[in-house]
Design brief:
Length: 200
């Protein structure tokens, strides 16, 4: 009788397979639902960033044509980003409703503004663009005032006497000489150590 009970308790192979198939089917369905949610969230992020891009289109249309520093381009990466320039971009926060304006600096990424309001973000990006244009104008003016501007077809004339270039040549000569002396001293030390260790 105990043998009969043991045999009855062991599930039949086709019942095990059907339970496994059902479990796999449920797992696939749950995974599909999760991926649908992820795709929907990503599309929502892109839609919100497109709204911001549309709000900024007039601002970027007013930028002079010879300025390639600023460009409002939406990159559908993961996560999607609206690039304002090489350093600044807008992306959506974790809640997918908050705009985050970020700028890369020497000290890491800096948050310029976080807001759920489209108009507020568009205003801050507009201010950022204005400041970047002013920085560009100042940089161009300082180049025009200084003697660092070189036009095509012309050679650059040195700003002063050749003393700085002579000094830098002397510094490099000293560095190379010191390196060679150190290398020869190290080689001689290794040779002597080898002789002492191999001597009977």
């Amino acid at each position: 009788m105990s043998e009969k009970m043991i045999i009855e308790e062991v599930p039949e192979p086709h019942k095990r397979e059907s339970r496994l198939r059902e479990a796999l089917s449920r797992a696939r369905q749950q995974e599909a639902e999760r991926s649908d949610v992820i795709v929907d969230l990503r599309e929502a992020e892109l839609a919100r960033l497109e709204l911001l891009q549309d709000a900024l289109s007039e601002v970027f249309d007013e930028i002079p044509e010879d300025t390639d520093l600023l460009e409002c381009s939406l990159v559908p990466s993961t996560p999607p980003r609206l690039w304002v320039d090489v350093l600044g971009h807008v992306m959506m926060g974790r809640d997918k409703r908050t705009y985050r304006f970020l700028k890369d600096t020497r000290h890491g990424r800096q948050v310029i503004l976080e807001t759920t309001k489209l108009d507020e973000m568009a205003g801050r990006v507009t201010d950022y663009v204005a400041h970047r244009l002013l920085e560009r104008e100042r940089a161009l003016e300082s180049d025009a005032d200084g003697k660092t501007v070189v036009r095509l077809g012309e050679t650059e004339t040195p700003a002063g006497p050749d003393e700085p270039s002579r000094r830098s040549g002397a510094v490099w000569g000293t560095v190379i000489f010191t390196f060679l002396v150190g290398a020869f001293a190290g080689a001689a030390g290794l040779f002597l150590a080898g002789l002492l260790l191999t001597a009977p």
